[in-house]
Amino acid sequence: MSGAVEVDLEEVARGPEDAPPRPSDVLRSKTLVLNRSFLPIHITSVRRACVLLYQGVARAVDSEYQTFDFAAWCARDPGPERIGLVNGSMPVPRVILLVSYDRVPRRHVRFTRHNVYARDRDTCQYCARRLPRSELNLDHVVPRSQGGQSTWDNVVCSCHPCNRRKGGRTPEQSGIRLLRKPTRPAWTPFLGDAFGQTRYHEWRPFLSFVDASLRDVG
Ligand SMILES: [Zn+2]
């Protein structure tokens, strides 16, 4: 261990009374996690980020894409938002990089029966009834016999009666109205976590690649 600085996370959690904002709040706030190619893969707590940094599993990242191990990060000017250590303080690691993790996040939701049901909220897209999944199936809006593809924008959740009524026809041909035009959902496991959370300015350089999909959701 290079451990010139020892961190006592319990001490950190209690924190010095005079350090604004309260360290326990800071430790509960969020850190963006990148894989070693700088792609965002996860969001975790600052507390967990500190542990990963201390263990050498992760490095802290600044806005210039420079990375720092624990000792180097502790040596930086902590600024106003800091974490108290046994013998000093360190800047809050808002972005960390996992040094030996190179998997890429899944950019899109996989096209599966389960995910189509989830997107359509177990609701028949023709009669708007919400049903148990055993009473639902998947329907090709444009039937396969007419060249319809098995894709996000041509497959919907349908109840058995609507499915039979529609038969091998399009909604127009069968006179059945489609509730809404199906599309690929914008959510992914990672993006789902990102919604509704504060997005720190330190995250901005690394989130640009997901911003296009976030914009769809607003
Ligand atoms: Zn129906």
Overview of the molecule:
It is a single chain. The protein is of the alpha+beta class. It folds into two domains: 7-104 and 190-214, no CATH class; 113-174, DNA Binding (I), subunit A. Helix content is 30%, strand content 18%. The protein has nine helices and nine strands. The protein has helices at 9-14, 23-28, 46-55, 70-74, 113-119, 160-166, 171-174, 189-194, 204-217, and strands spanning 30-34, 40-45, 58-61, 67-68, 82-85, 88-91, 95-98, 136-140, 155-159. The strands form three sheets. A five-stranded mixed sheet has the order 2-1-7-3-4. The protein has a two-stranded antiparallel sheet with strand order 5-6. A two-stranded antiparallel sheet has the order 8-9. A hairpin with a 5-residue loop joins strand 3 (58-61) and strand 4. The two termini are 45 Å apart. Bound molecules: zinc ion. Zinc ion is lined by residues 124, 126-127, 129, 158-159, 161-162.
Number of strands: 9
How is the main sheet built?
5 strands, mixed
Please report which band the strand proportion falls in: under 5%, 5-15%, 15-25%, 25-35%, 35-45% or over 45%: 15-25%
Bound molecule kinds, no repeats: zinc ion
Strand order of the largest sheet: 2-1-7-3-4
What are the low-pLDDT stretches, counting only 5+ consecutive residues below 50?
A: 1-19, 211-218
| Distance, first to last CA | 45 Å
Q: Number of helical runs? A: 9
| Gyration radius from CA atoms, angstroms | 24 Å
H-E string: HHEEHEEHEEEHEEHHHH
Query: By helix and strand content, what is the structural category?
Result: alpha+beta
Helix content: 25-40%
State the shape: elongated
Mean pLDDT: 81
Q: What is the count of distinct domains?
A: 2
